[in-house]
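[SOLVED] Need 3D model of a four-part complex

Original post:
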Amino acid sequence: MTLMEFSIIPLDKGAGLSEYVARALTIIDDSGLDYRINPMGTVVEGEWDQLLNLLTKCFRALEKDSERINIQVKFDYRKGVSGAINSKIRSVQEKAGRRLKI
Amino acid sequence: MTLMEFSIIPLDKGAGLSEYVARALTIIDDSGLDYRINPMGTVVEGEWDQLLNLLTKCFRALEKDSERINIQVKFDYRKGVSGAINSKIRSVQEKAGRRLKI
Amino acid sequence: MTLMEFSIIPLDKGAGLSEYVARALTIIDDSGLDYRINPMGTVVEGEWDQLLNLLTKCFRALEKDSERINIQVKFDYRKGVSGAINSKIRSVQEKAGRRLKI
Amino acid sequence: MTLMEFSIIPLDKGAGLSEYVARALTIIDDSGLDYRINPMGTVVEGEWDQLLNLLTKCFRALEKDSERINIQVKFDYRKGVSGAINSKIRSVQEKAGRRLKI
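Solution:
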């Protein structure tokens, strides 16, 4: 499976963006895929095609009323690994030997 | 149209990656889309679906013999704008009032 | 203040990276700055110079035994705003009108 | 040495950003470091501290009249390698066995 982190920023809406972020997050929450939001983006776990479909839905939802949109995406693909959305955090906490802020 | 910049890094192949980068670049060059390579990634111009199809082809080409792959992608969508792969550079050179290194 | 999200990936260590991630996270946790880890990176809040100093410390800690390192960083600067590491998530949840997965 | 690619986007200036990009590019061009602009960002080669100083100068130049700024940065550090701003492109062209668009 693959982890995808992304953020979508319309550039013609001024400095307050939470309305547009919320629109994308509603789509993500409805997708049924496991995800976590953080202050700089959202991490979703799924198969490659599921993730690109979700990204497309979010883009389409903002494209309809934005002139210019900036999207940043990172993928972390690991063959044969699932549940990484939880296990990566567990694994680094164990290696660090301390409880970290999640 | 949309500009997409991306880089694909297999994490289980050591520090020398040009063979894998070349594999992706051959796919990009064959796609017929306009693109430019730079020392940190490749910028391609196209419609959203064309760009995601190209990204998927590059991912599939590396997935077959990599355990772990990191992909970084940025999109710059501008409604009604095409040819931005050239015009953005022209535009900033004019605004800067000098010739910049391309 | 500024939010910085970053991830540091040594490219010559194979597919298992949690030991190196843990080394950086220990430095972040010791810094006294507020932070949150997520499955794809770490978000830290601070003044610009504090954030770049922290990034440098993490880089130096991995540089000493890595041949090649890839670092990805995003900054979100908002004039006159502090506590964004918490308030951004609150704000999008309110706008979405539902509880989202953190 | 290290390659740094970055883009700086003020979020409160609307969809036309070339004036702000040009302001940063003038600083980069004056820095004396080797760089290349591309349609999605600028790649600069230098030592770690030189690169962070340059990034700070560009941030300060936009911070003075922006409420909110998004910055995206990637670093590619290779121990003992210099001139990568040219050699990376040469190397992938050789591996691809064809002339690619720069």
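Edit: The interface with chain A takes residues 3, 5, 7, 15, 18-19, 21-22, 25-26, 29, 34-41, 43, 45, 72, 74, 76, 78, 84-86, 88-89, 91-98, 100-102 of chain C (CB under 8 Å).
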